[in-house]
């Protein structure tokens, strides 16, 4: 039975953590690695008003899934549709792999999840950089209006970041400091790849 080593990659919205996770996944290969996205566990717009608040995430289900993966049990990860603000009926089957990467802004802030992580990484990034990235992403990928997205960032993302995300940095084992550029992200990816290679070589 394959048991998994679980690595949390957290940080502010659009800090570069997802870019980091995707790069690491491509280096490790799907035979060695799976990715769990916090975004897949949103409760849905009927239940939440702020996507960046702890109450927006089904952490109980996420914890159950991480415990199963750690113990060699496959899961059916939900799929969230940002166009309809609801979970889709289909799910994604994730098999336990040597490395499980968990991507999310709030994963280190959740008391339910932290004990599941074998390594906790926090990606720092300046607020101005994150704001520009988030507005660009939401307009291009999620069909939002520019003014709506900018207002959401300033009135919801920033307060939630200051209340939940930034304080959770204290739980990190490693901090990618001021990762405003791709070179900074790549440096952290290199470190994580060496860490994962060592895990797989000794498994």
Present the secondary structure layout.
Elements: E1 5-11, H1 17-28, E2 33-37, H2 59-70, E3 75-81, E4 86-94, E5 99-103, E6 119-123, H3 127-141, H4 146-165, E7 174-176, H5 182-202
Parallel strand pairs: 1-5, 1-6, 2-5, 6-7
Antiparallel strand pairs: 3-4
Parts with pLDDT < 50 across at least 5 consecutive residues: none
Termini Cα gap: 12 Å
How can the largest sheet be summarized? 5 strands, parallel
Mean pLDDT: 90
Instruction: Give the structural class.
Output: alpha/beta
Q: Under the CATH scheme, which class?
A: Alpha Beta
Second-tier CATH architecture: 3-Layer(aba) Sandwich
Provide the CATH superfamily.
P-loop containing nucleotide triphosphate hydrolases
* Percent of residues in helices: 25-40%
Question: In total, how many domains does the architecture comprise?
Answer: 1
> What value does the Rg take, in angstroms?
16 Å
Q: Order of SSEs, N→C?
A: EHEHEEEEHHEH
Number of helices: 5
CATH topology: Rossmann fold
Number of strand segments:
7
What spatial order of strands do you see in the largest sheet?
Answer: 2-5-1-6-7
């Amino acid at each position: 039975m394959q048991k998994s080593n679980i690595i949390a990659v957290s940080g502010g919205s659009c800090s570069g953590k997802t870019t980091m996770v995707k790069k690491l996944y491509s280096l490790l290969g799907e035979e060695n690695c799976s990715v769990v996205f916090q975004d897949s566990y949103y409760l849905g717009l009927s239940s939440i008003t702020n996507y960046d608040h702890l109450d927006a995430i089904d952490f109980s289900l996420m914890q159950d899934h991480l415990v199963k993966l750690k113990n060699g049990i496959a899961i059916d990860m939900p799929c969230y549709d940002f166009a309809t603000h609801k979970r889709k009926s289909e799910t994604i089957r994730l098999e336990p792999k040597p490395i499980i990467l968990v991507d999310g802004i709030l994963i280190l802030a959740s008391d339910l999840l932290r004990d599941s992580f074998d390594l906790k990484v926090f990606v720092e990034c300046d607020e101005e950089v994150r704001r520009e990235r988030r507005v660009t992403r939401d307009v291009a990928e999620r069909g939002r209006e520019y003014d709506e997205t900018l207002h959401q960032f300033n009135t919801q993302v920033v307060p939630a970041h200051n209340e939940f995300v930034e304080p959770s940095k204290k739980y990190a084992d490693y901090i990618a400091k001021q990762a405003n550029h791709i070179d900074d992200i790549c440096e952290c990816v290199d470190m994580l790849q060496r860490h994962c290679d060592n895990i797989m070589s000794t498994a």
